[in-house]
Write a structure and sequence with these properties.
Layout lengths: L2 H16 L3 H13 L43 H7 L3 H14 L6 H8 L2 H14 L7 H9 L3 H18 L4 H20 L8 H20 L4 E2 L5 E2 L5 H16 L7 E3 L5 E8 L8 E9 L8 E3 L5 E4 L4 E2 L28
Antiparallel strand pairs: 1-2, 3-4, 3-8, 4-5, 5-6, 5-7
The chain binds zinc ion (2 copies).
Length: 348
């Protein structure tokens, strides 16, 4: 037997014994001989993305290049590619669609902070697809949707994941602190102790992305964070914002009242939608609303959300007010005009 044959047999034995790939076994044995640190990537990869269902015979000696949205040909627009790219690209897209659609200039501060929060949505996507692989869109169909530059088709494939994220995230502090945050903490622990072997640079890449999100999560909860101006900030992240983006996205697709919509209870009392409750499929099943009460300070004559009220109302008991006759936005109470278009009363 030549040395090479010995090496091959040893590698086959090791592979069988440990349930690892032949190539990984070869590499480990080579590393054991050379006493060199193992290179991060074991398996060279095909030079172009493989067709779906590739069996590897067309590129002997290399692993398949699993198609990713970033590999799409130039026919696909940037937006569609990003919307298909998990976890970060889609999180960015979902955030932008919502924040850029908001015309209210006075919310610029809130929007700026929301932009900084998109990493949390990316982390939630990563956690959900890791824990429930069935939420990952089918790659062949995703590829077809991206190559066709079809944003609606991409969204439809992402629907189960978006819905799972919308059902997980919350605007209720007790739920966030008691259930959601502990769950993400546990996921962060799992990611940090994950020592599964990485075979290709694609796997290395994916692990790196999730690792950075987990780092961000850890930094967020350090006792004090010094911001860019050198001021110590209380730890935290705008977790409310993430729920708002997901609700708006799903309302767009399924109908119902988006966060911020004026609605009325069955008895006619006005309220504003704060968060949306989702079932397994279809339109919203319920809304978390805040009652509206007359403003008492700089906003006399307007209706403002009561900060102490947080009522869960079945969807059937909520109806949206008619649009404002001037600007088309939702009008309050029984008036034909919204607050912005109606003449203002009282001292301002
Ligand atoms: Zn292949
Ligand atoms: Zn108006």
């Amino acid at each position: 037997m030549t040395t090479d044959k010995h090496a091959k047999r040893a590698a086959r034995d090791l592979a069988a014994r440990e349930g690892i790939s032949y190539t990984a076994a070869r590499r480990r044995l080579a590393g054991a001989v050379d006493q060199e640190p193992r290179p991060p990537v074991a398996v060279p990869i095909a030079s172009t993305p493989c067709p779906e269902g590739c069996d590897g015979t067309g590129h002997p000696g290399t692993a398949c290049w699993a198609w990713r949205p970033a590999d799409a040909t130039s026919t696909a627009s940037w937006d569609v590619r990003r919307a298909a790219e998990l976890p970060g690209g889609r999180a960015d897209q979902v955030m932008r669609r919502h924040e850029e659609a908001r015309e209210n200039v006075s919310s610029r501060w809130a929007r700026f902070h929301a932009w900084e929060t998109k990493w949390l949505l990316a982390l939630v996507y990563a956690m959900l697809t890791d824990q429930r692989p069935e939420l990952m869109p089918d790659r062949a169909r995703l590829r077809a949707a991206v190559e066709a530059d079809d944003l609606a088709a991409v969204d439809a494939l992402m629907e189960p994941l978006d819905r799972a994220a919308a059902r997980l995230m919350t605007k209720v502090p007790a739920v966030w602190w008691g259930e959601v945050k502990p769950r993400i903490d546990a996921y962060a622990d799992a990611v940090e102790s994950d020592d599964r072997e990485l075979r290709t640079w694609q796997e290395v890449d994916a692990r790196h992305v999730v690792g950075r999100l987990v780092d961000q999560w850890r930094r967020t909860w350090e006792p004090t964070v010094r911001n860019a101006s050198g001021v110590l900030e209380a730890p935290g992240v705008m977790w409310l914002a993430v729920k708002g983006w997901l609700d708006a996205l799903l309302v767009d697709r399924h109908g119902g009242h988006a966060p911020g919509a004026r609605v009325r209870f069955g008895d006619g009392r006005p309220a504003v939608v704060y968060a949306v409750e989702w079932g397994e499929d279809g339109p919203p099943v319920a809304y978390r609303v805040r009652e509206l009460e007359p403003g008492a300070h700089g906003n006399v004559g307007r209706l403002v959300p009561s900060l102490s009220s947080d009522v869960l109302v079945p969807a059937a008991d909520c109806r949206e007010d008619t649009p404002c006759a001037v600007c088309g936005r939702t009008a309050g109470m029984a008036e034909a005009l919204c607050d912005g278009c109606a003449p203002r009363f009282g001292p301002v």
